[in-house]
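Worked example

This section walks through a single chain of length 133. The input is the sequence exactly as stored; nothing has been trimmed or padded.
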Amino acid sequence: MILIHAKTHYYRRMTSYIKYFDPDREYFFVEGCFINELSNGPHDPNVSIARVKVTPGVTTAWHRLTGTTERYVILEGEGDVEIGDDAPKRVKSGDVVLIPPQIRQRISNPGDKDLIFLAICSPRFQEKHYIDS
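Given that input, the structure is written out below as tokens.
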């Protein structure tokens, strides 16, 4: 480990890391979707990246994350995202959704094919910060 002094802060120098995609690592999560953790561990505590799949006709459970900002990057399909008390908004491939900490959220897949997106959390997702709303 190399520590670099910058002003009055010490930073741990990151080392390179490749985690190869393994489709067999996908699991069903309690909110009603399938998750494949692409990057979530102590090697990069500032961010996590998960591939999320919501099957046709499914709406995930209302939930919120304490102390964690979440972003959805829509890759495939279309969805209706609900954040806080806002009306549902349609999202599609290429759209980015920003969800602040503590704000309830859910997403629906009204289509006939899987809705696939990346969930990028900072700091990294930890299940202890997940709260049903």
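What to look for: The domain at 19-132 is CATH 2.60.120.10 (Jelly Rolls).
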